Design the sequence.
């Protein structure tokens, strides 16, 4: 069991590393994306789990619920899905875990403006895009991040960090009391 | 982070008959003869190489388990007739997203690696003196460690790692032949049969990785040299002392292809990899093979961001070949990303 030399020299590999070295930069959502201001795609249906949403209002007759979710300044009004069955347990002011569906609209804006539509109320910016696994990482104004899976056919190849995202609440499909 | 690929397979007859197969080759031809001290020392060295090789084979996450058939021979000329079951649960992966490293243009993320493995081999001996004898070897290994992956840019990264591997190997010999019934106790006292040994292995390596994105397809090129230092810390016989140095060098190309078709609400993905692993040092001596090629195919469902930390669940199969061996493995393919 004699000692052996290393199978390969690391020098060529380290040299290759240095030769190929570029700059790694952390993703930033506040950059200005390329191209003219435009709509990239709307009505992108996504599912999201809001881990600590506060119930602001519940209207059982109208089948709606108002939640204040982390990262958003204003409340969001959702329809109650047919599978939400534990409404009697949910009280205003309670913290819940809500599984919701939302629709995203992604824009390139210039100074927050979209030609013809004026200033938009942007809810988040794109931080990173993973086209292979259809992931869109969003950053909210308070710095929190959320990753959502977008449907097949979403034009992720046209999206990049800095794009603006408007989120439309659609429906709560599951509710669970926290704590 | 990929952390768990679950596979169960049998393999590596070469390593199975440790001691016993060598014993067949070295034993004197006449039943009246004795094993000389030189022969016993040579046997113990060979056993040490095999113990180290089996510990790495059974306990290290970097070498796949598979069902192997050997066409080669041991150094002493005896042919093989053995089966080995190697089962492993383990993997390696990078945790979270890369973070800035101070003010440097380099990202970093923690990396963890681990494995639990067990190996159970049986060899039936078919040689004049020991015809009908059976030797069985078992190895258990637990490995854990980690390191840091440094991102030079969005595509190129390298991850130096350090791991520890505990191994427990035992061998039992069933003497059915007249010769071994007469000489079993002597062979035991020489530390050639019916032994157990506990070892620790220090493992250092560095994983270089380069990512290529072609539309939605991800191609990953990687090169991973690894060094193993193995020592005995407990043995049933003072004469059996494992001290060894081994290395491997794995080079792999992996292709991960989304198919654009959904099943049960999850996108189908296909892909696979080709991997070449070179064996060096005692690992090469212990396994009597210089390298192992593996080609792997898989069909999986994408669960990323849909089910806890699961990246995909599916099935995969490999075909493996080396200078003296061929083999295959098949099983569940589960990958996590943390």
Sequence:
């Amino acid at each position: 069991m004699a000692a052996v030399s290393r199978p390969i020299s690391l020098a060529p590999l380290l040299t290759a590393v240095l030769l190929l070295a570029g700059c790694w930069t952390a993703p930033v959502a506040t950059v200005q994306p390329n191209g003219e201001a435009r709509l990239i795609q709307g009505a992108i249906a996504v599912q999201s789990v809001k881990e600590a949403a506060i119930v602001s209002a519940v209207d059982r007759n109208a089948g709606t619920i108002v939640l204040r979710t982390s990262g958003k300044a204003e409340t969001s009004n959702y329809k109650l899905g047919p599978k939400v069955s534990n409404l009697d347990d949910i009280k205003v002011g309670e913290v819940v875990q809500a599984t919701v569906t939302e629709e995203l609209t992604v824009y390139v804006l210039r100074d927050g403006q979209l030609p013809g539509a004026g200033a938009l109320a942007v809810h988040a910016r794109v931080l990173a895009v993973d086209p292979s696994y259809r992931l869109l990482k969003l950053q909210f104004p308070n710095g929190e991040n959320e990753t959502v899976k977008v449907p097949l056919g979403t034009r992720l190849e046209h999206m990049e960090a800095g794009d603006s995202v408007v989120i439309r609440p659609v429906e709560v499909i599951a509710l669970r009391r926290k704590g | 982070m990929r952390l768990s690929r679950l596979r169960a397979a049998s393999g590596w007859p070469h390593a199975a008959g440790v001691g016993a197969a060598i014993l067949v080759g070295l034993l004197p031809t006449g039943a009246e003869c004795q094993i000389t001290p030189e022969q016993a020392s040579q046997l113990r060295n060979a056993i040490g190489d095999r113990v180290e090789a089996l510990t790495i084979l059974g306990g290290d996450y970097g070498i796949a388990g598979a069902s192997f058939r050997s066409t080669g021979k041991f150094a002493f000329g005896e042919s093989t007739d053995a089966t080995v079951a190697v089962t492993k649960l383990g993997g390696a992966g990078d945790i979270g997203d890369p973070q800035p490293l101070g003010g440097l243009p380099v990202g970093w993320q923690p990396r963890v690696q681990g494995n639990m493995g067990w190996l159970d081999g049986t060899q039936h001996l078919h040689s004049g003196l020991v015809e009908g004898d059976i030797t069985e070897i078992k190895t258990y290994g637990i490995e854990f460690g980690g390191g840091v992956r440094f991102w030079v840019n969005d595509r190129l990264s390298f991850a130096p790692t350090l791991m520890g591997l505990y191994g427990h190997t035992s061998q039992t010999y069933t003497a059915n032949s007249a010769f071994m019934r007469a000489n079993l106790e002597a062979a035991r006292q020489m530390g050639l049969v019916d032994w157990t040994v506990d070892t620790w292995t220090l493992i250092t390596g560095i994983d270089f990785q380069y990512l290529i994105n072609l539309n939605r397809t991800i191609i990953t090129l990687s090169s991973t040299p690894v060094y193993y230092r193995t020592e005995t810390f407990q043995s049933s016989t003072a004469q059996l002392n494992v001290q060894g140095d081994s290395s491997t060098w794995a080079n792999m190309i992996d292709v991960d292809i989304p198919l654009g078709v959904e099943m049960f609400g999850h996108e189908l993905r296909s892909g696979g990899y080709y991997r070449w692993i070179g064996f060096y040092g005692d690992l090469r001596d212990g396994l009597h093979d210089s390298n192992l090629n593996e080609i792997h195919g898989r069909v999986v469902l994408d669960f990323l961001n849909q089910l806890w930390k699961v990246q995909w669940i599916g099935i995969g199969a490999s075909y493996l070949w080396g200078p003296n061996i061929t083999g295959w493995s098949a099983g569940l393919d589960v990958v996590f990303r943390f």
